[in-house]
Amino acid sequence: MQETDLEKLFNEYVELANKMPTQTADNMLIAYGFFKQATEGDNRDRRPSESSNVIQTFKHDAWKRLFGMPKEDAKKKYIEHIKKLLDETEKEGRL
Fold it and tell me: pTM of the full predicted structure?
């Protein structure tokens, strides 16, 4: 798959994900991590302090776990993850 094909498919799945019914927090964090790694690369930000917003800390950690993963791999993983969520959502009758 050429980069342009992967980029197009990735963008299509980003749009699909944005239209999906609400998912579990864990699944949303996984998608967030892959998305950030795919679009920005490695997370070099400092971890939010304990007194900060817990959600921001979880998001930071989900992205940081993917440190070193190439952007192309993150795009592929994001697409796979969203496909899985769409299948599960459809089986649950929520689509």
Answer: 0.91
CA 58 – CA 34 distance, rounded (Å):
14
Q: Which of 71, 63, 80, 69 is nearest to 13 (CA)?
A: 80
- 44-70 per-position pLDDT tens digit: 999 988 766 899 999 999 999 999 999
Contact 32, 63 (CB under 8 A): yes
Could you give the number of structural domains in the chain? Answer: 1
Q: Which of the 8 DSSP states describes residue 65?
A: T
Residue 1's pLDDT band (boundaries 50, 70, 90)? Answer: low
CATH of the domain at 34: 1.20.80.10
The domain of 47 spans 3-91
Give CA–CA dist 89/7, Å, rounded: 24
Model confidence pLDDT, tens digit, residues 24-40: 999 999 999 999 999 99
